[in-house]
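Teaching assistant here, posting this on the class forum so everyone can see the example we discussed in section. The complex has two components, and the goal was to see what a joint structure prediction looks like when all of them are supplied at once.
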Amino acid sequence: MFLIECKCPNGMYCPLFKVDQMMEWSSRRSVVRMNGDKFRRFVKAPPRNYSVIVMFTALQPQRQCSVCRQANEEYQVLANSWRYSSAFSNKLFFTVVDYDEGADVFQQLNMNSAPTFMHFPAKGKPKRADTFDLQRIGFASEQLAKWIADRTDVQIRVFRPPNYSGTIALALLVSLVGGLLYLRRNNLEFIYNKTGWAMAALCVVFAMTSGQMWNHIRGPPYAHKNPQNGQVSYIHGSSQAQFVAESHIILLLNAAITMGMVLLNEAATSKGDVGKRRIICLVGLGLVVFFFSFLLSIFRSKYHGYPYR
Amino acid sequence: MKSSPNKGVLLQYWLSGALGGWGGTSDGKHKASTNAGGSVHGNSRPGAAGGGGGKVGLSGGLTQPAGWQSLLSFSILFLACLAGFSSRLFAVIRFESIIHEFDPWFNYRSTHHLTTNGFYEFLNWFDERAWYPLGRIVGGTVYPGLMVTAGLIHYVLNLLHITVHIRDVCVFLAPVFSGLTAISTFLLTRELWNQGAGLLAACFIAIVPGYISRSVAGSFDNEGIAIFALQFTYYLWVKSVKTGSVFWTIGCCLSYFYMVSAWGGYVFIINLIPLHVFVLLLMQRYSRRVYIAYSTFYIVGLVLSMQIPFVGFQPIRTSEHMAAAGVFALLQAYAFLQYLKDRLTRQEFQTLFFLGVSLAAGMVFLTVIYLTYTGLYVRLLTCYAKIHIPIIASVSEHQPTTWVSFFFDLHILVCTFPAGLWFCIKNINDERVFVALYAISAVYFAGVMVRLMLTLTPVVCMLSAVAFSSVFEHYMGDDTKREKPPEKAEEGLGPNIKSIVTMLMLMLLMMFAVHCTWVTSNAYSSPSVVLASYNHDGTRNILDDFREAYYWLRQNTDEHARVMSWWDYGYQIAGMANRTTLVDNNTWNNSHIALVGKAMSSNESAAYQIMRSLDVDYVLIIFGGVIGYSGDDINKFLWMVRIAEGEHPKDIRESDYFTPQGEFRVDKAGSPTLLNCLMYKMSYYRFGEMQVRRGALTPPGFDRTRNAEIGNKDIKFKHLEEAFTSEHWLVRIYKVKKLDNREPLDHKLRSVVPKQKYTSKKVPLMLGGEFALQVWRDSFRFS
């Protein structure tokens, strides 16, 4: 700590000592936390012989910034890849400034959105390209690494800690199913239960035809809330996109129509009271007709210029 | 069974309703359909006749109804084929007999090469007009089934002295094959359920938009014939599993061979059939029939598929084919154990042994299948859906599917086919296992990628037909016959309810037919080579700029001229203008495409360097600002930038083309890099002088596509000159100038002004001279 107090002859902090201090911090934690004071000393103040990547963020829970948390994870992955790579040197440091610890920095840099990634080069002021274009590229650590390689000529090979959660979940599921089978080994009739299998097959079909795969890949919001009047719309206006809620509605509609068809068939084939069967038949018919017309009207509202009702 | 004739009549009525939906312009359509309708007719006869024969055997004594039944089913099938054929002719009637879009132009060009130069010349064809300067070995890099089919039809017709142009064969190939698809779907569904469902399925597949999207007249593409091959292979497979005869299996292999030669989607078959066998083994439905069918299919199919040059040794190398090999090994082991079980006596030991080995084999197979499917899954997800490689992400077919596209392409069928699946699983047998697996795998792949909706469509038609058919079977029975056996009287639901249900179901089907016609006519029947615009009074303007420009290229440029354009237009330039292209729609070489993208997105002098190095003579671009055509090159421009950035990150940056606010604008606020790049300059050259909408209050240089006044109106070229602009400015062609004879100096020539200064400086020297003179005089005086 006393190194900081040591002053260079010209009255400024000596770059040599500053870089030593930064090395010490980053050997302890791959991302150095900064407050306003530290930021001005180690990042802003000019005599430096190292580049700094700064993430401006708001990680406090009361800020409710979920993007910040995701970005932080990616950033940690990147910083760790750098910290434990063989090319680790004192040319580049990763730091973070939280809004609640250094609000003055945010004001000073005229910054009003978080998270923001900035690069402070060793020489000169940050240019326009030194601010990472989060909107366009996203914050995947590979993209960050590419940007850093572009700005500083330091190549970082991103090494993600392998994700075991999927494997563990699979193993758990397999052992659960196996255990269940073992416990009920005397009565394996339920494997031959056609209804169960048919249900499972229909679940897959409904999930796919209602566009759950699209949701999985594109990650749309659950529903859209209009900021002006607070109205929540569950149906996306364009035919090119959908909300999660919308796909759930469609799933239910499809399932209802299918159930109607099955009921129609049940009513005709089952052997029972005629009145009861009549009711089943009418219910089935109602399900098919009503929900299909509902589905058609949703489709019409999305597909502009569709002429039929 | 009894309700079937009635159903037939109603179907016929419904079909005629579907046919009537097109309005009055059916004269030309019928004229066009007579020719190809004949071939459909000829092919359909054996299948339908066989069906009729089977019915006679089933119905036994009731000869008269059976005769009616076969006649009715034959005529329904024929009408379905006809409906399928004629509903695909919108584009031919509205425009003309022309090849559509992009890929079909390449197929057409290679078919043309095949018919003019013969088969062996086609197999060895090295196309030096594509991918200049690399060229392309066409024979070894295409699925030749499509070209060979079209070439064969053309050959046979010419042999019979029916002289048609190869283009007409190509245009009408897909509709003819859709008729064949309807027949094979009928056969497959009849094997799975019954004849009524088969007829319904044939009607569905004939008009369903999900299949029409790839098989309208003029879309001469692999998928058009591949769906027929797919359905027919499945039919023969089901047939061979049912009978266990080598004859049907060999037929299945031959059909599979045709499928392999036609489309890369054969991988779907070679994974689905082993999956079927595997599930049958799991369900303990193993039988000799399955063993014979699969062993024969695997060996013969493998050998046959390796005969296609483009496939080559892939079936024994790549992971997609490994599941089939694993199932083959498993089946042999299982059969061997079955054999041992008959011979050995010690039952206890036997079962233990059997259990252990089958478990081990199952584990091995599961790992294989796991590796395969994760590989497939990862490839499907990362390659196509995610935005890792811009050139793949830029193709709109490779996107995941929203529910809207499912509904748009399948309408009522998407809601009812789960019911069919339910009935199939509830009444399971060997072949219904197959259709259930088919449905689940196809629906998964269709969810991942819009393009694979095509493989889902047939199974949806079949299962919906099962659902509708079972409802009709119960609700459309004629009551007069039902009253005859008195013991059934108590189970009747009453004629009122029955007729209501029937009417409403028919209404739904009617809506489906109307929807199909509307979608086909509006969404899937534009050739995209010829555009049409409609005025307020309904009259039509044909915009034929593409062909105009390509024809100009063909007539006015050197035969070996090299034309640079974005890759979308490569096949069309090669097909219509017959000129050498740098990149085309076969996007195998990313770096070459990136180089073209870099040239388009650099400034003129940097682009000139690239174009010189690529020997470019002409540059062709598509510009829609005059007529408001949204698919033009400026709208695709960001993809060019992205692809170029992927290969040349130091020179091209996507962010340079955006405004500081992150917008892509072409007006004055646009980024200077964009306003000075080659693509912008070529698109808007002299556009600033043009008043687009006469009478309206738009300034000159107003881009109708992007609704903005362009930002750079003063565009001058140094290395290019405008060669051709089509009537509506849709296509603009620029000539790349050769280097000047002498390198122009990059600095200004020295002007003569300093000389004058020099003379003026002489004045003091003159004074000096006088002084010297005086000195001389002085010296003279001294002497």
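For the discussion questions: Chain A has two domains: 13-152, 193-302. Chain A touches chain B through 64 residues (CB under 8 Å). Think about how each of these relates to the inputs above.
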